Amino acid sequence: MARRCSGRDVSLLLLFFTLTCTRLDASSPVVDQELSDIINELWKLDTNRLKPGTDYTISLQGKAGFVTQGTNTARDHAQSPLFSHVNEAKLKSIKTYSNFLDLLDNYEKSTGVTEKVTPEELAENYRFLDSILQTEVMKRAHKYLVSKGKSSTDLRLFKNQLYDIWFRLYHRDRIQLERAGQFEVALFTIVFLKSTVRVTHTVINVDEYQLEVVVYRHGRSIGTSYPKLLSSNNRHV
């Protein structure tokens, strides 16, 4: 004879189901498939990427130590630079990277110190934007953002939008853009424009990598943006 389920049995079943789902969610992050699809398109279009093992070599060493809450220092266990080899000649021969390298001395790294943008630096900012907008990566990113109603079809207005996102000074008197190529600009711009929350966390699959993309918003500008590697089958990582 079949046993009837009591209220206690149902409660236990619900508790078991809840705990099981929680474990599944914790081990299997929800992937934004639509975003993964467009980012993979951009990844394949990025012909300017340097090749690991050929154009550069990474020296994996010890990891940085735990940062205690309330401090901003960590013990670095790596004795040598992360990159043991970089083909700088090839890097500088690529227009987008060459224009990006010109930006690296334009920033005041200390917070609280007023940033002064010279006419030369302003020209370098726009020269960098002009160069990445000529790439297939940014052309596709622009088309995607237009389809989502996030950007204008007018290339001039889109460039102004990118300038506001990446170069506009915010209240800490500091420029946003510190490191980026055309792929990174496209990636973080899309994630930034797809959300209006202060901090966006998005999980995507790109090639052999699963990443959590984190973007902090400061009004109409990106404050901080970075990827977190969740898993990879790529031995070069």
From TrEMBL:
Pfam family, one: XendoU
Catalytic activity: ribonucleotidyl-uridine-RNA = a 5'-end dephospho-uridine-RNA + a 3'-end 2',3'-cyclophospho-ribonucleotide-RNA
EC number: 4.6.1.-
Span of the signal peptide: 1-26
PANTHER family: PLACENTAL PROTEIN 11-RELATED (PTHR12439), URIDYLATE-SPECIFIC ENDORIBONUCLEASE C (PTHR12439:SF13)
Family: Belongs to the ENDOU family.
The protein's name in its UniProt record: Uridylate-specific endoribonuclease
Species of provenance: Anguilla anguilla (European freshwater eel)
